[in-house]
C-alpha cells in the first residue's frame, strides 16, 4: 500500500526552461501535483503522478554531466575502479549523457544508451557506439542479438527516472553475462531525509532509492547487492554493486548489511518516519520564506546560483519569484537566457561580474557548495553571503 507523506503543490516540469516568461496553467496540463508516497510493503518511495518518459527526455535535454569538476573527477575515479575490479570486455552505460564517464574507456569496449538525441549525438560524434533509445526490453534484445551479453552495466541517476522498474531490471538481467555486474548510483533517501532536501523530488525523480528498497526490488530478478559505497554527489548518493544470486565467486561485503541496519535504525521501514519528514518540510518552507522576506524588507539584492531542477521544486513550493530573486547564474549554455519554469526568474550565463552588487546568493546547486565556495572566494571576502535550505534554511 502506497501512503502519501509529502505534498509539494502544483509544479511545472523541471528541466523545461522557458524561452520567455509564461504563466503555466493546470488546465493545459502544464502543471502537475507533486505528491510523494511510501510503499509500506516494498519500502520504495515514489511520486504519485508519473510523467511519461518521452515528455521529459527529448532532443533538448539541458543537463550535462561534464559541467562540473566534482562530477568529472568522480567519473574518472570510478572508471579506474571498474577496470581494476571487474576488467570488463564489454561495458554498457544506461543514460550515458554527454559521455563524462565513458570517455575514460576504450571505444571498442563501450556501448552507450541515451534517449536524449542532443546528448546521444555528442558520444556518437566522438566515435562511441551509441543507441539513441529509451532503456527497455526491445533495446536489450537488440543489443543481445548483436553482442550476446555484457560484462558490466552501469547507470547513474537514470534508472530512478524510468516508470517501469520491473522492465528496467528484466532488461538488465536479460543482457548481463552469468558473472555480470550491475552498478547503479542514485540519491540516497536516507541522506535526503537527514538533509531535509525535499528538492530531490521533481518529475524526473520518480523513485528515490534506499538500500532497503533496492534489495527487495532486485530480488525478483534473482539479483542481490554485494557492496555499497557512499558518495557525496547529488547531495549524498549510494553506489550499489549488484550480482546474480547464483554467482558465488563474489563475496558479499559487510557494507551492505551496515547500510541496511543504519536505514532500519533511522526508521526507513516505518511510515511514521516519512510522516515526520513531511511535517519538517512544511517548517523548512516557512523558515525559508521568512529569510527571503526579512532580507527583501532591508532591500537586499538576492540572486540564485545554479538553475537546478531541484531549485525549480523549491521556488514553486515556496512561491519564490522575481520579486525575491533578481536572476539565476548558471554555467550551462542551454539554460542561459531562459526562465526558471513556473517562476519569472531569468537565468543568465555565469560570469563573475554578475555577482557584483549582490548581497545574497541562494544556492540552487547546494550539492556543489564546496566547489562554488572555492570559486567565489572574492564574493565571500567582500562580505557576500549565501542562503540555503539544506539541511535547514539559513544564511551562510
Ligand atoms: P545539479 O545539481 O546536478 O542539478 P539538478 O538538480 O538539475 O539535477 O546541477 C548543477 C547546476 O548548477 C548545473 O545547471 C550547473 C550549475 N553550476 C554552475 O552554474 N556553476 C558551478 O560552479 C557549478 C558547480 C554548477
Set out the fold topology.
Blueprint: E1 2-12, E2 31-39, E3 45-47, H1 53-56, H2 69-86, E4 91-94, E5 110-113, H3 117-125, E6 129-131, H4 137-147, E7 150-156, H5 165-175, E8 176-187, H6 189-195, E9 207-208, H7 211-219, E10 223-231, E11 237-244, H8 254-266, H9 271-297, E12 302-305, H10 309-318, E13 327-330, E14 346-349, E15 360-363, H11 369-375, H12 377-381, E16 385-388, E17 394-395
Parallel strand pairs: 4-5, 4-7, 5-6, 7-8, 12-13, 12-15, 13-14, 15-16
Antiparallel strand pairs: 1-2, 2-3, 3-9, 8-11, 10-11, 16-17
Helix pairs in contact: 4-5
Question: What is CATH's topology name of the largest domain?
Answer: Rossmann fold
CATH architecture of the largest domain: 3-Layer(aba) Sandwich
Query: How many beta-strand elements?
Result: 17
Question: Segments where pLDDT lies below 50 for 5+ residues?
Answer: none
- What is the ordering of alpha helices and beta strands? EEEHHEEHEHEHEHEHEEHHEHEEEHHEE
Biggest sheet descriptor: 7 strands, mixed
Explained architecture:
With 396 residues, the chain is an alpha/beta fold. The mean pLDDT is 96. The protein contains twelve helices and 17 strands. The strands form three sheets. Strands 6-5-4-7-8-11-10 form a seven-stranded mixed β-sheet, sandwiched between helices. A hairpin with a 5-residue loop joins strand 2 and strand 3. The chain binds thymidine-5'-diphosphate.
